[in-house]
Amino acid sequence: MSTAKKQYKRVTVKSLVDMKQRKEKISMLTAYDYTMAKIVDGAGIDVILVGDSASNVMAGHETTLPITLDQMIYHASSVIRGIDRSLVVVDLPFGSYQSDPKEALRSAIRIMKESGGHAVKLEGGKEVKDSIKRILNAGIPVMGHLGLTPQSIYKFGTYTVRAKEEAEAEKLKSDAKMLEKLGCFAVVLEKVPAHLAKEVAESISIPVIGIGAGAGVDGQVLVVHDMIGMTHEFNPRFLRRYLDLHSEMTQAFKQYNDDVKSGDFPNADEQY
After folding, report:
1. For burial by CB atoms within 10 Å, which of 3, 85, 206, 271 has the most?
2. Could you list the residue range(s) of the whole structural domain that residue 58 is in?
3. What is d(CA 261, CA 189) in angstroms, rounded to the nearest whole number?
4. Are 209 and 219 in contact (CB under 8 A)?
5. Active-site residue, from 190, 199, 202, 270
6. pTM of this prediction?
7. How many whole angstroms separate alpha carbon 89 and alpha carbon 192?
8. What digits encode the pLDDT tens for the residues 163-217?
9. Does residue 210 share a domain with residue 250?
10. Is position 24 annotated as part of the catalytic site?
């Protein structure tokens, strides 16, 4: 059983560590614009992720790879203006940190200075160790991301569950401990076996946020467009839809179209 939820005026990276220690689950959703961020923040969600998933749900790309650093800063700036309480974590996009630790630091600094974000997230383990160290040494909080790492989709060739084999599972566990040792404040585990995610969460002191990683972790994250049903083609096992906005919005738009065509809108009360 979780202990009573503490009310935070502002959620910080320290808040998340405290929540793990108290066994209070951490809630996390994506947002990419002011209006959505304001709603998510007002609902009491602990962490807002300005995800590179904006490449998919906002821009219509097949993968997360095309989104640029400038575009991530734009989305993050919009989100920051809409929040009062949530911790805002911003994805470093593909190509902005993998090859050169100095470039990684420059990218992270731009996000922090130009968007006002509170932390950055990047994918990978020991392969990006030097980039993580360089960013952390500058005082910028870092959230890690292991398991299925969508920026590496062409390397994997599939979005199926990761770390089912022993060698990859051992690497994931080692990478998680390395991220903790480096100083990351949390790590996302995406689409890995539930028993493995639980083992990782119990083996490190920093929060583990899961997406398709079972209930044994310290918190959960979903893409907001998926969980409210604005997207309807994407149906992974881990997704719970809390609304069916695709159907409701489609019906509303059709009704509006009919009302305009028929002359019913605007009526006498809707005019000046």
Report:
1. 206
2. 13-241
3. 49
4. yes
5. 190
6. 0.94
7. 22
8. 778 899 999 999 999 999 999 999 999 999 999 999 999 999 999 999 999 999 9
9. no
10. no
